Amino acid sequence: MDKTTIIEQSGEQLSSGKLARGKITRLPYQSWSIRILSVIVLLAIWKLISSFYPPTLLPGPDLVAVRIGELILEGDFFVHVYHTVARVFVGFALALFTSIFLGIAMGTSVHLENFLDTYVLVGLTIPGLSWALIALMFFGITEIAPVFAIFVVTSPMITVNMWQGTKAIDKELLEMGKAFRAERSALVREIIIPQLLPHIFAATRFGFALAWKVVVLSEMFGLSNGVGYMINQSFSVFSMVSVLAWTVAFTVVMFLFEFGVLKPIEKHFTRWRPAITL
């Protein structure tokens, strides 16, 4: 067997994802089975620990599941979840669009970078709890307060992602595009945007995680509806099962959004990226 044949066979193995020492490709159902197994293990540990405490202090997952069902049947569950999700979407949408343009501007302009990096650092340092309290004290018990708190908490983090993502763009690809006399719109569409998309989705994921926390804090301190308000109401009567029920139900809603909306969109727009497995 000559060298050419060996090289061709090696190339076929690499292109088909099969390495010489036997690479196993992970199928979608395998990933989901691992996630389901992880949840089962967590519930089993929770059930085991709860058996050592009274239900009023640490109810088991079965009691919490029953309480979630009761909340759904009562009808108020969807009303409060709707208010919380609406506040998150409005505040985060404002932060996302503002921070994308701001981060790109900082990544392409040294003067803007030097002028704004201190403010971004300050925004990252101030706790979300402080912003929630400041927003409620300044705007009062209105819908503006949680939206403003979400905006100021998530904006610096998204800006940093876009800032660093812009600075990490492959300059050689841009130079090659210019050498082939590609139009500016083609450079943006084919080179810049594909390289920024992973940073945008990463910023979206982390930004939403922060937004959920901030909106719950705002609702706990001053609003009259929402998941945070109901958690605070349950705490006021020391109903641990209701506190955990609202917390778990809200977590499920976040997971549904993550795996039902964000991940499919990210997978579609970043399908050009090769999978790296060891």
Record keyword descriptors for this entry.
single chain; 278 residues; mainly alpha; MetI-like fold; 2 domains; 0% strand; globular
Short description:
By secondary structure, the chain is mostly helical.
Walk me through the structure:
This protein has helices at residues 3-15, 28-50, 61-74, 76-108, 110-125, 128-139, 144-167, 171-179, 184-221, 227-236, 240-269. By secondary structure, the protein is an all-alpha fold. The chain has two domains: 1-52, no CATH class; 61-269, MetI-like fold, CATH 1.10.3720.10. Helix 6 packs across helix 7 (144-167), helix 6 packs across helix 9 (184-221) and helix 9 (184-221) packs parallel to helix 10 (227-236). The two termini are 29 Å apart. The model is unreliable at 1-25 (pLDDT under 50).
Task: Summarize the SSE layout with pairings.
Blueprint (H helix, E strand, L loop, with lengths): L2 H13 L12 H23 L10 H14 L1 H33 L1 H16 L2 H12 L4 H24 L3 H9 L4 H38 L5 H10 L3 H30 L9
Helix pairs in contact: 3-11, 4-5, 4-7, 4-9, 4-10, 5-7, 6-7, 6-9, 7-9, 9-10, 9-11, 10-11
